[in-house]
Amino acid sequence: MNAFLQTPIEFLKGVGPQRAELLRKELGIYSYHDLLSHFPFRYVDRSVYLPIAMAARELQAPVQIRGRLTSLEISGKGRHQRLSGRLQDASGIIELLWFQGIKWIRPSLKLNVEYQVYGKIKMYGNKCTIAHPEIQEMEQTDPNKGLKPVYSSTEKLGSKGLHSRGIEKLLTALIPQIERKIPENLPLDLIRDLNLLSREEALRQIHYPKNQELINRASYRLKFEELFFLQLELLLRKQVSLKKNEGFVFDEVGALFMQFYEEHLPFELTSAQKRVIREIRADCKQGFHMNRLVQGDVGSGKTIVALLCMLIAVGNGYQAALMAPTEILAQQHFESLSELSQGLPIEIRKLSGSSKSAERKEILSDLAEGKLQILVGTHALIEDRVRFQNLGLVVIDEQHRFGVAQRAKLWKKNKRPPHVLVMTATPIPRTLAMTLYGDLDISVIDELPPGRKPITTKHFFEKDRLSVFGFMKREIAKGRQVYVVYPLIAESETLDYNNLQEGFEAISRSFPLPEYQVSIVHGQMKSEVKEFEMKRFVEGQTHIMVATTVIEVGVNVPNASVMVIESAERFGLSQLHQLRGRVGRGAEQSYCMLMTGNKLSKESKKRLETMVKTQDGFEIAEVDLELRGPGDLMGTQQSGDLDLKIANLATDGPLVALARQKARLILEDDPELIQEKNLFLREHLAQQLKGKPNWSKIS
Ligand code: ADP
Ligand code: MG
Prior knowledge:
Among the domains are: 47-141, CATH 2.40.50.140; 255-286 and 301-424, 3-Layer(aba) Sandwich (Rossmann fold); 456-614, 3-Layer(aba) Sandwich (Rossmann fold). 40% of the residues lie in helices and 18% in strands. The chain is built from 25 helices and 21 strands. It has a 7-stranded parallel sheet, with helices on both faces. A 6-stranded parallel sheet has the order 16-21-20-17-19-18, sandwiched between helices. Helix 16 (404-411) links the parallel strand 13 (391-397) and strand 14 (419-424). Helix 9 crosses helix 10 and helix 10 (212-244) crosses helix 24 (653-669). The chain is globular. The structure holds adenosine-5'-diphosphate and magnesium ion (MG). Adenosine-5'-diphosphate (ADP) binds at residues 267, 269-270, 273, 296, 298-304, 425, 449, 556, 585.
């Protein structure tokens, strides 16, 4: 980065050592560059003032008013000292208050002079007041500068005069200095093609805008720049990992695959399943390492895709592993794979934390000798003692529970890394996926197997409980089974546990023995008990499964046709969607009943409405992204990448796609960024990558 941008912030007029320290601590602003990257989050039109009488009704909202100071008075002593001023216009009077900095504020204010005042209206006693307003003499406001930027700040900064207006002042001092000091960091032809403002002009207009149109153009340019460098970084990582890591070559589909396909395939594959298998197949025969994410909504048929790919690996003389996040899921996968592959000349085993030691020993030695071709399991698979003879493919189900570090661990199982196929049922909006999994290739199973009936989803309140129970009884009478799910959130585990117990008791009363059998499963149970209860339900011995979200992922009971979700307002959208995916797996019409309390936040309402309205996982993911933002959506994992200053992955989708496309074109032409015209791209990237872990080494 150039010297000007790196200038420490205390060199700026108006920033002494004290303010500099605060800017560093509170906002991470160390240099001119950082200050210039502290973008306004909105703009106020300076030419619009509310009459004071009207402003007084806008409690808590920031308002802009103008008026004369008609009195100024200091009262109280020491810590209780305060300064109050009366500001008057033709419509009314409002009180301005200062509790801090009185020493230097008082002398700067003049009676009977007209001021522009900006701040939040609050009631103080029975008076309308604005505390610590931004205040400026009308005379000194710049009538040409119609739009006033509003910056985020903190209370501490505010007390040192660096609320939004104070930060604006700093930028007003800095902006005139930036002329010809801001090096361009995008290729000139790209700037021309997209008709972008120069970097310098964009920075000027974002902080010191002439008009709304220029704000829009400035923000477009800066967002594009941010997304472009993010995508460039991701694509480079991917490129590095491809080059560094040769992969196993699966030359042919193999006899095993063919035998299965011709003799054992239980149904016609959907065209989406076929396409995804072709994509994987193409990856695995090229000689480089595959790192692919398969997204497919619940029930889209990922298991069979996993099996077919593992059969290709085995047919080519390699071993394959399938890793699931929980014991129950590993067990289900093991069962369905064993069933599907019946009659094939292969050995499939399951390894988990609860495997008995004799069994474990046998599995480990068979694995090392290559007698065992497919291993299914939980995290136990990545323990150091697990040695494969030649692991060629790893399928990871429900990726969101496996971090990058765990994926990396898998790699150490071989000299060459096995191909990695990650399967997730959490649909992620495409633009977000591009960014979060920018270093993975993505396949999407965007089609459900034929004949699925849409699940009827309805929202109920507590008062409807009797009719909900009545409905459950009628379904059970038809031979169906029912899930009743309670939330379980770490912070209030005991409370939730009590809710679950109470719910279980209420259900046991309303659904008495011996007519009704009820299972219960929750996280505080021993895993044997849990599995026993689960098994009873899976086998149809119990009618109702009362559970926490442990059943959220993967569990398959086709005969279950009703999903009742208690306190549905407390679940996130993707969780609700996952839960609903547990029903509608058989031939029967299925139902999802969302029970909530009467008081619902706006967001909860939106979540429930979305659930009732659609069953499309991608549509749901888009709403989820809007509601929660990308960071929350993915948890903390990799969210560092999402620390964007101006772009927003939720709302700037098209720009993400554009940035990725442009970054790709540049890398296709100049993969190492060594051409003259791309040198500053390289430099800018080097700066951006400073202090980040070396990603090329992991995934
Ligand atoms: P998920 O993607 O949620 O893991 P599964 O692999 O468990 O989905 O498949 C859900 C159900 O759909 C299973 O019962 C499976 O046998 C069935 N299935 C998968 N693919 C097809 C298909 N092409 N045609 C009919 N049924 C299918
Ligand atoms: Mg599955």
